[in-house]
Amino acid sequence: MDFIEACRQLISIDSTPTHGNRDLARWVAAFCRQKGLYVEEQEEVVGDLVQVNVIARPTEERPSAELLLQTHLDTVDPGPFPLWTETGANPFDAHIIDGKIYGLGAADVKLDFLCKLEAMASFGKDRAWRLPPVLVGTFGEESGMQGALKLIRKNKVSAKMALIGEPSDLQVINAAKGFASVEIRVPFSEEETRYRQEHNLRESTSTQSKLFRGKAAHSSTPHLGESAIVKMLEYLMMLPDSVNIMEMDGGINFNTVPSNAFLEIDMVSMIQNPISKKIANIYRAVKTLELEFLDYTDVDFHPSTPTLNIGLARTNEDDIQLSGTCRIPPVITHEIYERWMDRLRQVCEENGASFRVNDYKKPFRTEVNSILVKGCLDELRTMGLSDRPITQASTNEASIFSRIGVDCVCFGPGKREGNVHTPQEHVALADLEKATQFYKKIIERFCL
Hints:
With 448 residues, the chain is of the alpha+beta class. Helices cover 31% and strands 27% of the residues. It has helices at residues 3-12, 22-34, 110-121, 146-153, 190-201, 228-237, 275-293, 334-350, 371-382, 398-402, 429-447; strands at 38-46, 49-57, 66-72, 95-97, 100-102, 133-138, 159-165, 173-176, 178-187, 207-213, 217-218, 244-250, 256-257, 260-266, 307-315, 319-328, 354-361, 364-365, 390-392, 407-411, 426-428. The protein has a six-stranded mixed sheet with strand order 1-2-6-3-7-20, sandwiched between helices. It has a four-stranded antiparallel sheet with strand order 15-16-9-17, with helices on one face. The two termini are 28 Å apart.
């Protein structure tokens, strides 16, 4: 099977969060064996799905130290199929147009795994490895990086250094922000619940509705978007404290700047201490925290300060849910982060709301003068590519591996901004070739 056909087949196999990556992992494991590698499949049950990490080595015995080449095999959900105009309205049907391959996972980051595989397999088995490479395809990057966590907790690799797959336009990423995923639930009072039930049975209504429009963006770059939920909350702040919220809805997930929001209110109810007042108090605390963020700058990043995004607002039967993320550059210590979370938790509790951090990943930074970063930049320079390291506002498995003392850099073919998580996702075939060449050079430099 040639490289292009392998790319097509990899994209054709569904590994979205609702499907899981087992089917894809089985294909990948078989392909690695065809390339002459020794393969272990680490199966894990996560929720209702069987997920799999694929671990491929050129040696049968596990060494005491390894160079980790890691890429996640899962993708985001594709969204509406008709938007995938370059692939005939099918995100799993790869199309090659003007030297670029289009399809879900082309850049983020299925095809990066094939580049690493091609590079590693090209050296064969009979080598005197100084630092043997290990190729790992993980699951669940798009849903909490569970695959990387399971890999570490069950001690499946002996990584000393790691190259983490990430669409970076063939540049080395030596630092990335961490993040906290936060959920706030503000309950309706018994009085509000009764009023809302009675209101739904009336033939006439005294409510008013308003739509808010914004511009979608990834939560790691909120400055590139315009939050419809923020517009909705700012509007709510201008209303009397006595207003009663009948419905509040916005966003599609916690990790995206919301482009749409909807608010239905009742101006004439006589509810005591309504939920609108509680939500306004919590939002004021969020705004105060965002002002404090401006005092903490990490010039290596853009945006240079911590950021906060409320990505989701939902009205449930018993409460209103607000979910979002906080992005944290490496300059922020864990103590500062804990203090911020404690302040938000306290304000929520004062207003009868619950506050929960669903997920937390630390920021990472590998110093530019480290052996790994310097070596990667040297090899890129010999290839005529950029030898200046960059940073990333979002988070990936480097956060997990760096926590246990592994020097990490992120690298991969394909552009990130305006490309991944869009129906036009693509990567240039020439960049796939360059990435494969780069991985060969890294293996030669560090492993032989």
